[in-house]
Amino acid sequence: MILSLSELYEILSQAYGKQHWWPIVQGGVSLYLEEYSQRERTPQEALEIWIGAILTQNTTWKNVEKALTTLKEKDVLSVEGLLNCSEEGLARMIRPVGYYMQKAKKIHVSMRFLATYLHGNPCEMRSWSLAEARHALLSLWGIGPETADSILLYALGFPVFVVDAYTRRILECLGYEEASAPYERLQHLFHQKLAPDVHLYQEYHALFVAVGKTCGKKPRCSFCPLSSWCRKSQENVLAGVERSPLQERMDKKS
DNA sequence: CGCCAGGTTGTTG
DNA sequence: CAACAACATGGC
Question: Are A88 and A96 in contact (CB under 8 A)?
Fold first, then answer.
């Protein structure tokens, strides 16, 4: 039998502990505070999460941290502040995240939306229905399903499950047929099997990222808490796919 | 030097 | 609708 989604959560939760997502950047470092799960995000925090969700598209968080730090130093991490920057100027400030021209434009599009429909306050979206809010986000250029759901779940506190590349990879390793299904179908699987609990969804997605880092395209099965349930683990050990850094150097020489 | 990272959009069969 | 290119920096 394959692991149920509830069992999977328990295993990851015990292996990695509380993740306290989504982080807020302060003094150049990311803070993962317990209080985030005990109160609603402030408008300022919600905006930072919104921007961060765009910046982190196909990029490491470390680079997003740098960009957010620069935006704070320049004191432009606000709807008005960002709209007062030219897209070129904004692009320069977020350069480390890559795709900076596109992302600068994406940020402007979102900020114009916030200024026009929400008085510049993302938290006002909490009075919308989940369906309306999600539809509005997806209509914005630069916001796809994962970014929309990250904003809904982490900035606004809607009970939506965030699906990402790691989610697919892990589920595939565990033998789930749905792993390659379209985004909404995979999301439906989680909504169907788990209670609509915001805190659970926030932690669960963060845990997928945590375990996903040990199970990249270079699997490190010996450090993975899922190895005994994982299809690939056995194959990798037998086929010698998992290499130590030393072995990898040897491979390159020959 | 090559591959990859908490995706999205536009183009093509 | 699936497959693919383009977008681009930083870390290992």
Answer: no
pLDDT digit string (tens) for A27-61? 999 999 999 999 999 999 999 999 999 999 999 99
What is the CB neighbour count within 10 angstroms for residue A55? Answer: 26
Distance A130 CA to C12 C1' (A): 41
What does DSSP say about strands A24-26 and A29-31: parallel, antiparallel, or unpaired? antiparallel
A31 backbone dihedrals φ, ψ, rounded to 5°: -105, 125
Domains contained in chain A, CATH given: 5-214 (1.10.340.30), 221-253 (no CATH)
| Segment A3-28, tens digit of pLDDT | 999 999 999 999 999 999 999 999 99
Instruction: Answer for A188: CB within 7 Å of strand C.
Output: no
Question: Which positions on chain C have an atom < 7 Å from some protein CB?
Answer: 2, 7-11
